[in-house]
Write a structure and sequence with these properties.
This protein is α/β, with parallel strands linked by helices. It has three domains: 2-35; 40-260, P-loop containing nucleotide triphosphate hydrolases (Rossmann fold, 3-Layer(aba) Sandwich); 265-331, Alpha-Beta Plaits (2-Layer Sandwich), CATH 3.30.70. The chain is 41% helix and 26% strand. The chain is built from 13 helices and 14 strands. The protein has helices at 2-10, 14-35, 80-87, 109-115, 131-141, 146-159, 175-187, 205-220, 232-238, 256-263, 275-281, 306-319, 334-342, and strands at residues 40-51, 54-65, 69-73, 95-100, 103-104, 116-119, 193-197, 224-229, 241-246, 249-254, 266-272, 288-294, 297-302, 324-330. The strands form three sheets. It has a six-stranded mixed sheet, with helices on both faces. A four-stranded antiparallel sheet has the order 2-1-4-5, covered by helices on one side. It has a four-stranded antiparallel sheet with strand order 12-13-11-14, covered by helices on one side. The structure holds adenosine-5'-triphosphate and magnesium ion.
Length: 351
């Protein structure tokens, strides 16, 4: 490489040299993109962020795959917004490395900004602009040409079902409508990644379900989603993968199923006509971790997948001539996972 360059300079062929530099730069950029695993659209390594004495984010590492819905699930003050704000260049990067859409955050923040859309935790709408003006203003800010801009406004307002409200000032919208407008605005630039900080905070159950639909639609159309939430059901229902974050640290990462299965605390509730004898009948099953008796039957904790154990339990009990009144299997919920990793108390870090 250097030989080539030196020869050209000696011969004074400035044109070729300039061309060569351009090729090199382009190749460099491509190489840069390739440093990331092809399918990772976000890579975060050892990210730390402090506000004075408060360590909001402590050595956080994770990656988000292209095309997935990835969630940060954590209690108040866990460091979710701080992480999102660093990743979207709103806060300066203090320590660690971040790559978004192939670009290094510290070196090419502009490129990162061009590749992303953001919906902040707190509402950021000009109260006196109409729905349409809000979108138009944003499109102009990003220099989207007029015709294309108008088309995208129509398209996005259709996706979030706000066409009927296009001439209404944002101060007259409901909370759910405002949130939908913010999502439409975040999507106007056709981002590769959409960051959603607590997208359904404070919304009623129906509006939340609709919002999940929008998010799924947007994702299905090819946008990777990074969202934060403190709602277990939201993380569970929406995410391909979840990182549980607490006290500024990721405590566990996995698919919702992996996280729930890993707890290994499937419980079978068994009601029979003779619980004491039923308990004796199933003593030999290795996967049973504990059996407790209650007025409403036996509560049997299973160390593996309870759905495989249940038929054997039923067979053994029936085989011993004991009638079964009811049998229920309870798998761990995301609430169980969350409590397991973060404890029960309400908390605010640094508070
Ligand atoms: N601008 C700031 N100045 C000082 N401290 C801050 C600032 N922003 C956040 N913090 C602190 O950093 C910690 C993490 O806050 P962050 O907003 O990231 O949490 P979060 O997980 O988004 O919480 P929530 O669920 O309440 O939105 C908290 O202790 C918070 O008080
Ligand atoms: Mg937050």
């Amino acid at each position: 490489m250097s030989n080539f360059a030196i020869i050209r300079i000696r011969r004074g062929e400035k044109k070729i040299w300039t061309f060569y530099m351009k090729v090199l730069l382009r190749a460099g950029r491509r190489t840069g993109r390739h440093l990331m695993r092809e399918d990772n659209i976000i890579e975060v390594r050892d990210l730390e962020h402090s506000f004075g004495e408060i360590q909001a984010v402590r050595s956080v590492s994770f990656s988000v795959r292209k095309g997935e819905i990835f969630s940060f699930l954590g209690p108040n003050g866990a460091g979710k917004s701080t992480t999102i704000n660093v990743l979207t260049t709103l806060l300066p990067i203090q320590k660690g490395t971040v790559r978004v859409a192939g670009y290094d955050l510290a070196r090419e923040p502009e490129r990162v900004r061009e590749s992303i859309g953001i919906v902040f935790q707190d509402e950021v709408l000009d109260r006196d602009l109409t729905v349409w003006e809000t979108m138009e203003f944003h499109g102009r800010l990003y220099s989207i040409p007029r015709d294309e801009r108008r088309q995208r406004i129509d398209d996005m307002l259709a996706v979030v079902e706000l066409e009927a409200k296009r001439d209404v000032r944002t101060k007259h919208l409901s909370g759910g409508m405002k949130r939908r407008l913010e999502i439409a605005r975040g999507l106007m630039t056709r981002p590769e990644v959409l960051f959603l900080d607590e997208p359904t905070q404070g919304l009623d159950p129906q509006t939340r379900l609709r919002m999940w639909d929008y998010i799924r639609q947007v994702n299905a159309a090819g946008t990777t989603i990074f969202l934060t939430t403190h709602y277990m059901d939201e993380a569970d229902m929406l995410s391909d993968r979840i990182s549980i974050i607490d006290h500024g640290r990721i405590v566990v990462t996995g698919t919702p199923e992996e996280l729930k299965d890993a707890l290994g605390e499937d419980v079978i509730y068994l009601e029979t006509v003779d619980d004491a004898r039923a308990e004796e009948a199933i003593q030999g099953i290795d996967e049973i971790r504990s059996i407790t008796e209650s007025p409403r039957g036996l509560s049997i904790t299973i160390s593996t997948d309870g759905s495989h154990c249940l038929p054997r339990i039923v067979e053994l009990v029936r085989g011993a001539g004991i009638d079964i009144v009811s049998a229920n299997l309870k798998k761990p919920t995301m609430d169980d996972v969350f409590v397991h990793y973060t404890g029960r108390e309400l908390r605010d870090m640094g508070g």
